[in-house]
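Instructor's aside before we start: the two examples that follow are unrelated to each other. I chose them only because their records fit on one page, so don't look for a connection. First example below.
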Amino acid sequence: YPHTSWTGALSDYDYSRVEYAIESTGLRNLSDRYVEELSDGERQRAMIGRVVAQDTPLIILDEPTAFLDIKSRYEITDLLRRLAEENGRTVIFSTHDLQAVFGICGRMLLLTEKEVAEGAPEDLALNGTLNLLFDDPVLKFNPEDATVSFLRQMTGTVQVTGAQGIVRLWTCRTVQRTGFNPVSTEAPLRIEIRDGVSGRKWICSNKEYSQEVTLENLYDTGRWLVEQKKHHDPASQRLNFL
């Protein structure tokens, strides 16, 4: 507690800052436990709570979301955003979490073996600087939605028809994950998304084999696509779809 006197006595304000730190970092259910009893993720959150309690105008953190589960990771990054926006703090942190940077940071420094770049995350995406992070034959950065995807050789195309919006989006992702390119035009393989009184169905057909099946979820749709892939690429018969 950097603001206490040499006696170490806590004022009412000090206690209020401790309470704020506990609540804002989600530590209420852990407040009666010793630090050595906490998991790595819980201890990380406690250390961030300690920084918040110190009420400093400048906060410097080294990978504050490391070891945290997905929910806690986003809670902590949102806390850092609120500390900066609502309380006027300056927050500097290192991270490998690209989504966290795009979600909350106003300015970033990008360190690579080739250069050091700085600017708004959106500017670094537009000018291609973020591609330096993925100078790799297997990965690529998608500036359209700030995601990272695997580069892979596609087996063929699948026509996707029917529903639009989020249902089509996740259907197309299933198609891509199994090694096909989703298209709106005619293709040997076809998936029709159909909503009815009995629920949503995926009608999958293969024109070459005059085959049509009705499936109830994208897991089974993905399995069907893997089976079709075996006919296009014999090497894919060694795939294990889990």
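Example two begins here.
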Amino acid sequence: MNLKKGIGSEYVELLEKSGVDTVKELQNRNPENLCFKMKFVNSSGHALVRSLPGFKSD
């Protein structure tokens, strides 16, 4: 399944640059690791999004 359905193009680009290309791949990712990777990607060069999703541990 394609990521482009249901989320903004900026977040699609951020996910793709973070190594996530499909919904199945997103489902299998460790949320904490993905959160850190997305923060790193967004801070490298120019910011793709203004607000990053957060990670809340139990």
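Residues 9-43 form one domain.
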